[in-house]
Amino acid sequence: MRIRLLADEPGLIPEVARLRWAEWGNWPDSPDLAEWTDITTQEAGHDALPVTFVAADRAGAAAGAVALGEFEPPERQQVSPWIMGMIVRPELRGRGIGRLLLQALLAWAVAQHGYRQFWVATGDEAVGFYQACGWTLTDSFDRPHEHVNILTLTV
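^ that's the sequence the OP posted. Answer follows.
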């Protein structure tokens, strides 16, 4: 498994967008695949946020991705950066790819920008993953059509 900045692997942007669309594209008001491709392209920074790290398998296909960006969701104003778009191909989950992606992303964020605290908003299905990676559940609440959990990590 090779993990790199998506900016250094731009040919994988459509694959990462398709993975994200397949996972989250059925939500109400969700953008179409072209918009997911645009979002993924915008998150493919190199030296500044937002950035995305991508895991590529031996064949060079996208196995997963994770982004980091600065934004302020309505429930958590003035805290950043946020983990965004964490995805691993369904058939590869449970093999440590997500953990490797997070480690690479966090190492970059600490070394390049001095970030020490990170945030993620996720559904119930991913809380255990983040907790196993050392994150702390700090809040949960309901939005229309979803339950949201907020976790933080301080390094």
